[in-house]
Amino acid sequence: MASENPSYGNDREQFIAAAAMATAAALVLREYPAARTIALAIGVCVSNPGGMVEAAVQWLAPSTGDGEVDFAGIKTRVVEFREDVQKKWEGPAQQTFDEALDKLLEQLDVAERHFNGVGDSMRFTAQLYHWAAQLAFALATLMTALAAIRVWTRLVPWVAVQIQCHILISAVLSQITPLARSLAAKLGKTVMRTTGIVAVVNIMCATMTQMLTKNRPKPDYAPTGVEYVKPKKGEAVGHLEHTNDGMPDTQAMAQGGGMMGGII
User: Fold this and answer.
1) Is the pTM of this model over 0.90?
2) Closest of 138, 109, 125, 102 to residue 54, by C-alpha
3) For residues 112 and 104, is the Cβ–Cβ distance under 8 A?
4) Which of 131, 133, 145, 252 is within CB 3.0–4.6 Å of 11 for a Cys-Cys bond?
5) 240 has which bridge partners?
6) Cβ count near 227 (within 10 Å)
7) What does the buried/exposed string (b/e) look like for 49-66 if buried means 16 or more CB atoms within 10 Å of the residue's CB?
8) What are the backbone angles phi and psi of residue 247, rounded to the nearest 5°?
């Protein structure tokens, strides 16, 4: 986590300091458009690598996060459940049930790989932003030095010195401007790719949840004289109730339920 990773712990503060220094220097160097470009690029890069590391840890070990998605535990319980069912159930239906559980285990493996992929992407992004924080602070420090030179030249009465300093400042700014632009562009692309991966995994998990909780087929209880009642607000699952207040159901008897099928 961020607090447990001292190498990333102060990156956010370093980004903020770099942005503030670059902005102040750009005000002093207001006659140089490149200074404003560099300050804007550094400001766009401000982020929190420590928070990214914390997120990466939770994605790589989801059972320890807020969501508590324990893939290993879920797969173990599924296998144990199947072994218990096999002792009490035989026939084609049981084989179909086994195949469904095999597919479930495969999907759990896929989901676990996706979680690990997001964690690796977040960790890589955090490392990239960590180095970006160092570079941004170095660029801001250099801009501050150039701003100090510009202030000094305004106090110097010699025109030749002022011209030389102007040439020096222009040359340095022209050299570091492409670097700042490239840094901001690459960080932006990395964030977009990582965001896309996270979005895909979230959509996949939401789709699986919806399929399991809302769109699963309900069994036909008509021949038994009972009906499925959807869960009320605050309830996780529904329940079964007698049809016709427990009186014989003629429709159920017509479908082969018999008198007992209409009463149950």
Assistant:
1) no
2) 125
3) no
4) 133
5) 228
6) 15
7) bbbbbbbbbbbbebeeee
8) -75, 160
